[in-house]
Amino acid sequence: LPFIDQVLGALLPARRPAGSRGEVFLTGLSSGGFMALRAASRFGDRIAAVAPVSAGDPYGWVRDCAPLPTDRTNVFGVGRDADTGRTMSEPGACAAPVFAREQPWDTSPGGVRPPVRQFHHEADGILDRSCVQRAAVQMAANGFRPQAPFELSGPPRDAAWHYWLDDYNTPILRFFAAQIR
Fold it and tell me: Which pLDDT band, with edges at 50, 70 and 90, does 73 fall under?
């Protein structure tokens, strides 16, 4: 996270046009969404709002890098829920009765937690909705007040529904705009 600290503390302020607003809004898809949520837990005092897309609990999963015959050439291994051990694409993969293997959440100076709204497709073929639900439970347990998630519906589970969908654009921008004070 030192890189994110540099981006928020030096790079963004130095690149802003004169007279522009200072809010920082984070969004990211998949691993980027996990990282946006993790950054919000650590740097909440510098982030106005967060919109993770197709992302789960950043402190409750592990990457299993054992080679698999189905691996893509640019992504190795699979994400697994830390408590169930199940691949995060499996239905109910993150539905654990307790979160005993949850890593401690980072804390932001002053305990500041920015507004969060999750975005997800119910038919996401890579990240089961139980993983999005686990993230919401853990956010609430760690001082966030997540808004109701934005969930798209559609065709059966398929990896194609894990990509950024244009249907996320307007709701994310509206969510961010509502956070401007």
Answer: low
